[in-house]
């Protein structure tokens, strides 16, 4: 790699979505990390990725069919975990073993390297699910984000396991890179899960005998931070009891880092430790992931004394990875339309054989979080409007999403949609379980429009509509779509949050209008529709490709001279 002898940047990420055969991703954060890893390679930027080998991944979603109390066939969402054991196919054994104390117990971390199969920069995966670790230690990296209560773990034990996994990722990752003999220039924390990498840099400086102020300055010179969560609370902002963090990291009054130091970095009045606040305090520079996100982040975190300055680097995807060549090579509306018809036929054959290729087709697929509003298309009056359109065979809708296993409300939403897809009221609704990486690409290439329904301003960026596979976005003005040219997609909904009930009702009515507008053009002015496909794809190919973002990270965040 072209590092000119100046060292390598380590990109720490809690998940990594490079390929469906590797179960170490759950959603957009992992997809972004993989896109950048491929772009760093393509742009010859000296980066290595550090993540966790979560052998049971996030979870496998499936449909469980059963007979209910009325003797009727019913359905519910099934959740299962399968152990991944394909090391020989995908991994190289580096021979590096890293000892680490967790809660005064010795754990060992085995360091794997991903084989050069995916056009990525080097990827190192940390694994404690190995001998001689005991059962508890082996659980620490078995599932992404520590697992779920669904698997029978109490909330308290789950929190400890999550914290242990982040400690392994951060501190263990830094120690692994040292043992691998890689000369490091910077440490990039992709979300606050990687906080302990910064703490390890700080601790190392303090052990050299420098003052606290000088150690902070040194750490800032080595650490950069990306945050992906817009609000002051959320999945990306990791918060744990301060005493649990101290116990996990074996911190006591003797130092070099003390409990008082932890409190200074990320403590709050409730006795909690906020990893995002600590990352802002230890990073030299931080970035938001869209222009709209930057505005929100500055309002929430800009008050922190001594925090890193925040810039914006809007998320993007690698089109060599996620866009089919037929779409990438198409130069005219006619060529785009031909590619769309090819992949639409493939989509119908695989997922909905009863569908008609001439019918307007919409897709919705992503993680099933509350703010993404999985059921907005059927909200309120939209229910019978959509039902009637389907009965008239004017629209077909393909949906999929993976709610968190502990989010009963979102699982209920998914189950309701699945049952509706089996009813006579929605003959052209297909809901599929197990929404994974391959589906993301197939669906965007096969549907005519991609529905993006987050409640503004809850989406930090999002990437699902960036693939450039001929699906015109229909979206609220949130995340990256706030930056897109309005003529290249179909916008709907409010730009700023109001009362949630009123907000969703308003946006649902606006979504109905937008879908009606799309169908009018699709059925009555196909030349205009095909031109819009071309313009939409050109915009994401030009302005939302991760090669450009890789260069931004290299220069604006890492300070590299390329």
Reconstruct the topology from this structure.
Elements: E1 8-12, H1 28-42, E2 47-52, E3 60-67, E4 73-80, H2 87-90, E5 91-102, E6 105-114, E7 123-127, H3 135-139, H4 155-180, E8 184-190, H5 195-207, H6 212-222, E9 223-226, E10 239-241, H7 242-248, H8 259-266, E11 272-274, H9 275-282, E12 285-288, H10 291-301, E13 310-312, H11 319-322, H12 325-329, H13 333-351, E14 360-367, H14 382-391, E15 395-402, H15 408-421, E16 429-432, H16 437-446, E17 449-452, E18 472-475, E19 490-491, H17 500-524, H18 526-543, H19 546-557
Helix pairs in contact: 1-19, 4-5, 5-6, 5-9, 8-9, 13-16, 13-18
Would you mind describing this structure in some detail?
There is one protein chain. The chain is of the alpha/beta class and 562 residues long. It has 19 helices and 19 strands. It is globular, with a radius of gyration of 24 Å. A hairpin with an 8-residue loop joins strand 6 and strand 7. The chain folds into two domains: 8-316 and 548-557, 3-Layer(aba) Sandwich (Rossmann fold); 320-544, Glycogen Phosphorylase B (Rossmann fold, 3-Layer(aba) Sandwich). 40% of the residues lie in helices and 19% in strands. A nine-stranded mixed sheet has the order 5-6-7-2-1-8-9-12-13, with helices on both faces. The two termini are 12 Å apart.
């Amino acid at each position: 790699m072209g590092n000119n002898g100046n060292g390598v940047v380590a990109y720490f990420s809690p998940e990594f979505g490079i390929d469906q055969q590797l179960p170490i991703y759950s959603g957009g954060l992992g997809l972004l990390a993989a896109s950048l890893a491929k772009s760093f390679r393509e742009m010859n930027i000296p980066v290595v990725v550090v993540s966790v080998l979560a052998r049971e991944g996030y979870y496998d979603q499936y449909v469980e069919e059963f007979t209910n109390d009325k003797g009727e066939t019913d359905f519910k969402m099934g959740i299962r975990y399968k152990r991944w054991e394909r090391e020989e196919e995908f991994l190289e054994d580096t021979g590096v073993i890293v000892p680490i104390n967790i809660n005064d117990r010795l754990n060992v971390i085995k360091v794997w390297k991903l084989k050069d199969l995916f056009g990525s920069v080097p990827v190192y995966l940390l694994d404690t699910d190995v001998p001689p670790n005991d059962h508890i230690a082996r659980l620490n990296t078995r599932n992404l984000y520590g697992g779920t209560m669904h698997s029978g773990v109490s909330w308290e034990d789950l929190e400890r396991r999550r914290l242990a996994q982040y400690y392994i990722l951060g501190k263990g990752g830094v120690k692994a890179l040292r043992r691998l003999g890689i000369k490091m220039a910077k440490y990039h924390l992709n979300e606050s899960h990687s906080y302990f990498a910064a703490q390890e840099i700080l601790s190392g400086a303090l052990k050299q005998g420098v003052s606290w102020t000088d150690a902070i300055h040194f750490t800032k010179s080595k650490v950069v931070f990306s945050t992906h969560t817009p609000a002051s609370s959320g999945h990306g902002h990791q918060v744990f009891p301060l005493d649990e963090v101290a116990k996990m990291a074996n911190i006591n009054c003797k130092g070099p880092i003390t409990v008082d130091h932890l409190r200074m970095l990320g403590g709050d009045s409730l006795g909690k430790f906020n990893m995002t606040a600590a990352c802002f305090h230890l990073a030299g520079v931080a970035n938001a992931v869209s222009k709209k996100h930057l505005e929100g982040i500055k309002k929430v975190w800009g008050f922190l004394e001594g925090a890193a300055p925040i810039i914006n680097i809007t998320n993007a995807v690698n089109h060599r990875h996620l866009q089919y060549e037929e779409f990438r090579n198409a130069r005219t509306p006619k060529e785009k339309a031909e590619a769309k018809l090819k992949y639409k036929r493939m989509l119908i054959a695989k997922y909905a054989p009863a569908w008609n290729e001439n019918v307007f087709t919409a897709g919705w697929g992503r993680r099933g979080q509350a703010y993404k509003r999985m059921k907005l298309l059927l909200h309120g009056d939209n229910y019978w409007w959509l039902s009637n359109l389907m009965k008239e065979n004017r629209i077909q809708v393909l949906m999929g999403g993976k709610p968190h296993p502990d989010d009963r409300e979102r699982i209920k939403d998914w189950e309701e949609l699945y049952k509706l897809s089996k009813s006579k009221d929605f003959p052209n609704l297909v809901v599929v379980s197990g929404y994974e990486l391959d589906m993301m690409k197939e669906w965007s290439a096969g549907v005519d429009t991609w529905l993006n329904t987050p409640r503004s301003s809850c989406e930090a960026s999002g990437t699902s509509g960036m693939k450039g596979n001929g699906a015109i976005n229909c979206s609220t003005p949130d995340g990256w779509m706030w930056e897109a040219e309005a003529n290249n997609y179909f916008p709907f909904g409010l730009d700023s949050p109001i009362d949630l009930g009123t907000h969703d009702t308003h946006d649902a009515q606006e979504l109905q209008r937008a879908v009606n507008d799309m169908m009018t053009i699709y059925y009555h002015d196909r030349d205009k529709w095909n031109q819009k496909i071309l313009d939409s794809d050109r915009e994401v190919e030009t302005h939302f490709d991760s090669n450009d973002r890789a260069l931004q990270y290299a220069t604006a965040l890492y300070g590299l001279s390329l």
